[in-house]
Recover the amino acids of this structure.
């Protein structure tokens, strides 16, 4: 199998940028970034994911004095450490510690108490996939991770406040149509309730090309196993590279004013379809595709597939719950500053509810989930009451039912 250079493919065919769109903002802010990061103590939660890893690498360019990285993915955390230790000229502070643990468990709280205070804290622990919305159990787990644990974490952090606290969001929090987006919208409001006491920022951004678990990353996995591919033919998305995802978060975390929400300045003409990326992917590999009429046909054609045979791909029209046909980073109610950065927009009027309101919101959701007879629709109904612009799209189908 002739796999291509994924980083080069992203630059040439997905984001279509030779250098990071945030390179100018990083360079222009270099002195301040050095002042805020060099020699400082940093905690990164969810560091083994694509964005957490990219943020960590962007951060290390400015030589923090201490770095603690946490993730539930033990193998991913090990690979992050090996990657850092094996890269030529990569700065790693003498005090570098990795902990495979959940940021909601007792061991984490003990570790935090031992190592605090931190100057910078970044939280990337999240359910990020629309496909995670299936039934009441998956929705409950998503809310637990994205909202409840984020609140509990801030209750811990507020005892020894950092100079910068960042929690990652998503473009799907703007006018959400799926529970993942709604949970992130609630996360934003939850963390903003603490923004008077802790300098807090967040960022919404586009799909990260070939990120862990994404459709495009799945192409690499399928090719390694000689398995057929499937792809939505009618979905277009904004993309950033893994490097750019880390830089967005670093700039928002360190340079943002408390309660600001950052997003990339991307124009509509930069939307690209998954179908186009798929076609370019096979062209770049020098491999012919054979377009199939069904999943079953594609799977059958993958049996005994030769290295030079046309590769079976099934294109389908999207019909699963929570799929938004377009992307947006802000709504008409948001006060947006486009002048502050070259490639970043900033929402300056994020809703900042009281801590009492946040507690009532969590209690309302927990009351539904702790009742004897509840379902996904009951949770969605509560979310629609709490988030006025939440317009849930329910089709009765989810992505786990597809290849």
């Amino acid at each position: 199998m002739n796999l291509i250079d994924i980083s080069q493919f992203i630059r040439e065919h997905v984001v279509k940028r030779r250098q990071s769109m945030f390179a100018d903002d990083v360079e222009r802010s270099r002195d301040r970034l050095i002042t805020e990061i060099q020699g400082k103590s940093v905690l990164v939660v969810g560091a083994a994911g694509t964005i957490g890893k990219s943020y960590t690498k962007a951060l290390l360019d400015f030589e923090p004095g201490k770095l603690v990285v946490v993730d539930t993915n033990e193998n991913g955390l090990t690979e992050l450490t090996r990657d850092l230790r094996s890269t030529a000229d990569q700065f790693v502070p003498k005090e570098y510690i990795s902990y495979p643990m959940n940021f909601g468990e007792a061991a984490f709280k003990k570790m935090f108490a031992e190592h605090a205070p931190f100057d910078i804290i970044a939280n990337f622990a999240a359910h990020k996939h629309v496909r995670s919305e299936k039934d009441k159990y998956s929705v409950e787990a998503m809310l637990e991770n994205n909202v409840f644990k984020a609140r509990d974490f801030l209750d811990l952090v507020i005892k020894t406040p950092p100079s910068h606290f960042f929690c990652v969001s998503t473009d799907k929090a703007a006018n959400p149509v799926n529970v993942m987006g709604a949970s992130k919208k609630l996360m934003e409001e939850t963390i903003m309730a603490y923004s008077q006491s802790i300098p807090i920022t967040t960022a919404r951004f586009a799909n990260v090309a070939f990120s862990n678990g994404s459709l495009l990353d799945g192409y690499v996995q399928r090719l390694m196993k000689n398995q057929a591919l499937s792809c939505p033919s009618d979905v277009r998305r904004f993309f950033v590279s893994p490097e750019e995802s880390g830089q967005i978060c670093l700039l928002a975390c360190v340079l943002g004013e408390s309660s600001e929400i950052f997003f990339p300045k991307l124009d509509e003409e930069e939307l690209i379809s998954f179908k186009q990326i798929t076609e370019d992917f096979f062209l770049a590999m020098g491999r012919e595709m054979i377009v199939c009429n069904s999943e079953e046909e594609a799977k059958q054609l993958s049996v005994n597939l030769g290295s030079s045979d046309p590769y079976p791909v099934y294109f389908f029209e999207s019909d699963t719950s929570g799929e938004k046909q377009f992307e947006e980073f802000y709504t008409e109610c948001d006060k947006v500053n486009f002048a502050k950065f070259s490639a970043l927009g900033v929402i300056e009027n994020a809703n900042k509810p009281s801590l009492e309101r946040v507690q009532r919101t969590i209690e309302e959701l927990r009351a539904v989930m702790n009742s004897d007879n509840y379902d996904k629709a009951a949770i969605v109904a509560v979310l629609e009451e709490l988030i006025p612009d939440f317009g849930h799209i329910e089709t009765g189908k989810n992505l786990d039912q597809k290849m």
Observations:
- The chain has a mean pLDDT of 93.
- The first strand starts at residue 41 and ends at 45.
- Residues 136-157 form the longest helix (22 residues).
